[in-house]
């Protein structure tokens, strides 16, 4: 990724802001919000997004898988199933992560086959079985729709999705027999023994139902499906390809009286024969985490054929994307629209249409008055993804998210909030208890519809769970000791921030004893900060800092989580002013920030660290610990320096191509960063009800708010030649501070920004004009 620090960055920014030859032709004005979205952005490089069909926050993500043959550590590049530079498609499966740094899912793979011979194995790109070559020229992707021509069978394949259903449409060559292969063996993040048990059940009415239980990233995950066809079957085969002893645990449904055929095993496939067809074959698939009956009910809850489902979903996307109406020049139009799209895919719906869902205790529960959500990549998404949803999806999605998090805690065998959860199952991936700031941020912004007392109780229970991640040591010592717990330096500062978020909500609720306790814990970041060296460092149980110490070292399981001292020494979002005092004041903090961005990495090798991508010096935009750092100049009274850095980051880390994300999107966090930054402000400390002003990258934007209110951002003189704010007004009055309050946005109004070629060092310099810090701000 060394090109990100080359002269290309400056040229690219001019292309992003103004269009031009490097960008190709400027796209015409869109007729609907979805027209500007390009789902292929992020499908190459390290973006890990998928191009397939999904409804906003939908349970189903119906997308092509180009390769599922990887095993464990080799799966990183195929975490979403699809990789843009692969030459073949193995099939179309129904569940995918959008931009995760880990792979799993890829459930219920379907592949059309034409002709007299049906291969039952995918084969390899060099020797394909049912796998097929394809060309990007035949692909079409837009919100709620994907299509491609499969060169092998000469089938035109189209995909759309509803909330809990996926719909396929296949146009087979005239005169050739049409078949489908349904492969329950296929999965992302494969290894021997992943499929614990599975089953296929062909019913008398021609509906195929089934299930599988997997032991992958999430242990013991169960998924059920129901599949209905627009043409009758003329033949079929249900095949178990396993050769070892059957699993004796979860057995799935037994044979029903309506069964034409049923087979259970750990390597299940179906061959479905339809003869020659005069019309396209439509395949409608419902999913459920509860049972086959739930999958059938979900199938029936979203009626209509392919076109009807597609039209509903595209209308849903236009409504969701229409929450921000904007104007932008050149590639930024596609980049921003797609970032907004990627921000609206997760957390995905998990409960069935009747409200039932499978919880982290593997039991079935009933959601009453809300839709259960899952797919929580909280270490990533608490930073910008969830704060964005509080603005553009506050009334339903954010309330559902909070209620889902609390319900998960109440069902959890461990009694804590989700850490990294999907399909109702906990993976225990990453660190912190970052469901806490998601809940606190929503509550502090006045978003209701949930039991705040129960939410606070769940937050405190998580923060006091001594068995989790060194929390017992943290509560006893005020820091996590590295000789007792790995990644101790990172855990200490992330726990301290989460504790501050608990204190914010507790004080608002009048729980002064809880607030005081967690406000004290929020200062624990100081216990791992070495004031003499100016670095956050891991300490031993005896109080000494661990040696030897190298601030550039990145090793998994060491002092830091997916980073090093350069990134983590800035993680005190609740008290950046306190950190800057320890660093020696504003000038020294600014100098250290500059040193981070300007660091010469030429002698460093981070190839062993998958998530370390998008480097600008020691700033690593492809991973989350750096995401707030460019905004920290404002805490030192130099917001014009933030404006410079944002220009550098946007130019080098985002593009309107498949490789347009410098790192994996992490369920919308990379994209939400861009959405906020392009609007002109960013939530450095969720829970503070403040946004630090950066600089806009859109000429105009309007956020639609509840009650018909609108908050508009209007930018004059936006161009590469004008990177600095010259003047800024809020509702016609000069704004002298470098932050916006959440209530100022929610009540509606206009932020008017004038850009120019020279910085204004005086703006935002006064201490009273700087953003929130716990130790200096009384507001």
Automatic annotation (TrEMBL):
<dbReference type="InterPro" id="IPR041371">
    <property type="entry name" value="GH92_N"/>
</dbReference>
<dbReference type="InterPro" id="IPR014718">
    <property type="entry name" value="GH-type_carb-bd"/>
</dbReference>
<keyword id="KW-0378">Hydrolase</keyword>
<dbReference type="InterPro" id="IPR050883">
    <property type="entry name" value="PNGase"/>
</dbReference>
<dbReference type="Pfam" id="PF17678">
    <property type="entry name" value="Glyco_hydro_92N"/>
</dbReference>
<feature type="region of interest" description="Disordered">
    <location>
        <begin position="751"/>
        <end position="779"/>
    </location>
</feature>
<dbReference type="InterPro" id="IPR012939">
    <property type="entry name" value="Glyco_hydro_92"/>
</dbReference>
<dbReference type="InterPro" id="IPR008928">
    <property type="entry name" value="6-hairpin_glycosidase_sf"/>
</dbReference>
<dbReference type="Pfam" id="PF07971">
    <property type="entry name" value="Glyco_hydro_92"/>
</dbReference>
<feature type="domain" description="Glycosyl hydrolase family 92 N-terminal">
    <location>
        <begin position="37"/>
        <end position="288"/>
    </location>
</feature>
<feature type="signal peptide">
    <location>
        <begin position="1"/>
        <end position="23"/>
    </location>
</feature>
<dbReference type="GO" id="GO:0016787">
    <property type="term" value="F:hydrolase activity"/>
</dbReference>
<dbReference type="InterPro" id="IPR005887">
    <property type="entry name" value="GH92_a_mannosidase_put"/>
</dbReference>
<feature type="domain" description="Glycosyl hydrolase family 92">
    <location>
        <begin position="295"/>
        <end position="757"/>
    </location>
</feature>
<keyword id="KW-0732">Signal</keyword>
<protein>
    <submittedName>
        <fullName>GH92 family glycosyl hydrolase</fullName>
    </submittedName>
</protein>
